[in-house]
Amino acid sequence: MPTLKLSFNQKVAFGFAVILLLLTISGAMSLWTLSDISSSNERVHETAVPVVSEVNKVQIRLLKLANLSALGFNALSEEDIRPYRDDFEKGATEFAEGFKTLETLAQADPQRAALVADIKSNYETYTVAVRKMFDAKLAVLIAKQQVEDEVGVVMERSDDVGFAFLEIVNFRAPSRALEKDLSLAQGFANQADALMAGVAKAAQEIQNGEDLERLDSAQDDFEFIINGAMFWFDKAIPLFQPMDDADIIGTAQSSVEALRARLKAQPNLVDYKREQLTQAQTAREQLSASKVAVEKSVAGLDEVLVSADAQFNRLQAELGDSVSFGFKSTIVILIILLGLATQNFNSMRLAIRKKMIDLAKLNGIGGTLAAARDQDTALELVLHAMYEKIGIERGSVYLFNKDNELEAKAFLPPKQMDGAPSAITFTMGEGVIGRAAASKQALFVPDTSRDPSYVGGEGEKAKALLCVPLVDKDILIGVMNFSGEVNKVAFADSDYEFVASVARSLVTTIKNIRMVEVIEEHNRTLERKVEERTAALKQKNEDIANMFSNMHQGLFTIVDGGLIHPEYAAYLETIFETKEIANRNFVDFMFRRSTLSADVIDAASTAVASIVGEDAMMYEFNSHLLVTELTLEFSDKPNKLIELDWDPIIDDQDVITKLMVTVRDVTALKELQAEAEGQKQELMMIGEILSVDADKFSDFIEGSTSFVDKCRTIIEETEQKDLGKLAELFRNIHTVKGNARTYGLKHITDTVHRIENTYDQLRKNEDMQWQPQELLSELAFAEQAIKVYSSIFKDKLGRDGKQGIAGARVDREQISRLLESIAALSDTELPANVISIVRDTYHSLAAIDAEPLESVIADVLKSVQSLAEELGKPAPLVVIEDHDIYTRKAAHGMLNNIFMHVLRNAVDHGIEAPAERRAKGKAERGSIRIDAVEDDGAVSFVVRDDGRGIALGKIFAKAVGMGLYPADAARPAASEIANLIFTSGFSTADEVTEVSGRGVGMDAVREFLESEGGSIEIKLDAGDEGADYRGFTTLIHLPASLCVIPPEFARAS
Questions:
Q1: Interior/surface letters 973-1012, b for 16+ CB within 10 angstroms, e for the rest
Q2: Looking at residue 385, which CATH number applies to its domain?
Q3: Which tens digit of pLDDT belongs to each residue from 27-80?
Q4: Which residues contact 65 (CB under 8 A, 6 or more apart)?
Q5: Are residues 650 and 683 in the same domain?
Q6: Is 739 a member of any domain?
Q7: Same-domain check for residues 594 and 451
């Protein structure tokens, strides 16, 4: 049987074929194994992993919701609860969206789907409970406030009863015969008062209690307490009745009935408290229900996690089996491959040896090329190396020229260059060389005569041709061309690799040579550029250094750790009086001498630590804690006022690397601002003073100083709170304010208004203590304000208000005698031509020490116009008929005080708003009329306005509220009610303003007049005694000593 013999190359080829077959089988098995592993991995990531991930997300959202509901339950105010409820609703919406994803993932597993459905049911139970809890919590707060308000009202009613009882306890017997009965009555009343105090105590117990059952008997408790107290009070009634001229018993009984009615009202204190406790119990129950539901939901989610974890472990086991099988099959194939590799070892050893020889030659060529200094030398070295290695006869290298054509740059042998054309070129795709260039692949032509694309010369012999492209990262730079006789030149596979390696080395060398040329050109200009940029950088650094050294504000940066960067503006040392700044902790540096509190400093330190090195948004969150102004204290120098600006320095990653602080010493600036503000206020005061007549201003200063002195004396001599003294304080200070407002003296008006507030609080707040030192300190502000105006008036403006007439001193007593003498004349005794002279003389003399009313109250009339504007009413028309009657200067201050109150009351309380006047058919603009009437040698000023009249119904209701009349008292005569406005502390204004409402004014008017021998009264027009409003006239009586009444012949016709 013939034997098949294989050559060495055939055996190697066969061996490699077998190896290739085994590798193919191994690859196929590996692909199958990888496919199985990938499928297992996909099952893991498509089933178990998403479920675990989504369950974790759902659990986190659910726990966040549980935390919000717990915080909402513990919140103490509606402002705290509502944000928690809103956040809960927002979180519930997000939870529902995430839970839909979990439901979708669970559908593939019926058991898991059932678990998820149960979780959903528990969650819905939880959300319903939480919403009910939030509603109950809000209801608790409302009921709690209602309880607190109702307790306050009950205690007020209880106090009213107690005050009535104490009126009896503190009552003095009108005679010794009644002392015994009064003593017994006071004992009974005292016992009743002690028992009645139980109402307030019971109300407070209800307010503070938490027992619902206790509320069932609360109403009976109240009734028991009141009945017990009234048992003793009823015993006091027959004893005290004979001496009860002020109807104290009736007041007490009315107060008791008012208390009973309040306690039995619907709803009442017990109802509000029951609602509070019921809602609180509901909130707790719903919170407990929500906790149970959320715990069930969390337990269900844990079960889903256990199920997903089991599935995950099962799929992981399948994945491990696939990996194990693939590993074993790979080992078997590797063993077979190792056997075949051994058989081909010798062939491979020979191939490796040839490779090593080629590598040695390549290294040599590489070293030679590396030493080449120009392109031509490198090309010749490559051609020579190829000649030695392959034995080619001829060779050439083509490189692209500026026209993008392949141009011959080197030949082998060199002698072939002699007589050659000056430039042999090819275009892309032309000839074998052009084809190799276009395809960027090596081309071997065994016989050029058989290749139609070959471009040769006439008569040229056939040859074997190898063209190798020179490529750098897919960029063609040229082609190498080698040729020899057809039968002598053959290229093995290793020769192709050798030529390709030489081509790569040549490409690298050409690139390096060209780069060296570029670098050398670069170096020729680099030194000049470096010098230019160095000079520019030096100038820039000098500019920055000069700026830091000469800027008149501090500038530094805080780096991580709270330390100050070494680079800072030199002026910082001047501001803080120290050179120890660099690398110092900013808190110690900035705040050691400051007057800031420890809390403010700690907050700033914490804020900086939270900003530097963190995300840029941290600056927005914490910048409000950074100090913007501070005061530095020095032991031997004045304090400094410093302003600070903080700016974050942010890098490309949006992280704050430093915090820049700008420091400005604004001490001098603030002083200038304060000085300018003082000058501005002084100029404003000068303008106010100049707008007032000098004599009137002088009278105002004198009168106001007198009122303030009276207030000081009252405060100094009063040891305990006295409502009578308080009323006098009110009258004095209210008059100062009214006059200051009349003359437009704003600083005095504002200062006195604050003092008036204090007196008002003292009067209304029984618990407010009488503190003379504080009151005197406050009064000093008013005194100082008056002194400032007085100083400007006298020192700045050089006026004293007592200029006289043309600088002459006038004897007022002599003037009075002359006026009396003229008044005694009769027009029948005087010739007609003398009467006019006497009349003029009379008026001239009268004008020296007296003025008509319209001139006296001119400033008050102006203030009435401005008051009307403030109240949104048209300025009223004021008509004055003085009938040539004069008032002496001694009365001018008093008249200004009187008419300031009377006319302001007319505008504020009497004259209606425009809409109301239109509805009544009146002109929108109101009117006030003042008539001066002679009254038995004295003068009466009759004042009327066309307003709605005096509010009798409102005045009587106010009087009852003040305790001036019992609640069940019959309405007294209308005239009596009308004149109540002269009672101290009485006002019908609904609220306190700078215009009215404090109950001081008309009582002050009466006080002024009576102190000078005058009087004031309200005279009602004819009308219904029971009407709520009545027209009226104000009659102001001025004594004769303060008036100048001309005789008939001296009056105007």
A1: ebeebbbbbbbbbbbbbeebebbbbbbbbbbbbbbbbeee
A2: 3.30.450.40
A3: 676 666 666 555 555 554 555 567 777 777 777 877 888 887 788 788 888 888
A4: 88, 91, 92, 95, 126, 130, 294
A5: no
A6: yes
A7: no
Which residue range(s) make up the domain with 769? Answer: 674-796
Q: What average pLDDT is seen over the chain?
A: 80
CA distance 960 to 237: 22
- What does residue 108 show for φ and ψ, rounded to 5 degrees? -70, -20
- Asked whether 428 and 453 are in contact (CB, 8 A), the reply is no
pLDDT digits (tens, 9 = 90+) for 560-599: 899 999 888 888 888 888 888 889 999 998 898 888 888 8
pTM exceeding the 0.70 threshold for the entire prediction: no
Residue 950, amino acid? I
The token pair at 13 is 């080829």
- Give the phi and the psi of residue 1031 in degrees, each rounded to 5: -65, 155
Question: Does residue 542 belong to any structural domain of this protein?
Answer: no
Q: What tokens does 666 get?
A: 């604004």
CA distances from 831 to 734, 827, 836 (A): 53, 8, 9
Q: Which residues make beta-bridge pairs with 468?
A: 480
Which backbone phi and psi does 376 adopt, to 5 degrees? -60, -45
DSSP labels for 427-458? -TTSHHHHHHHHHTS-EEES-GGG-TT----T
Strands 938-945 and 1032-1038: antiparallel
Domain shared by 359 and 328, yes or no: no
Pairwise CA distance, residues 953 & 82, whole Å: 46
Phi, psi of 460 (to 5 degrees): -75, 135
CB 455: neighbour CB atoms within 10 A? 12
Give the torsion sign (CA, 816, 821, 827, 833): negative
* Interatomic CA distance for residues 1012 and 42, integer angstroms: 110
CATH number reported for the structural domain that contains residue 891 in this entry:
3.30.565.10
Q: Map residue 1025 onto helix, strand or coil.
A: coil
Cα gap 621→611, rounded to integer Å: 9
Listed in sequence order, the residues at least 6 apart from 371 whose beta carbon sits closer than 8 Å to its beta carbon are: none
Task: Identify any residues that bridge with 1035 across adjacent strands, giving them in sequence order.
Answer: 942, 1017
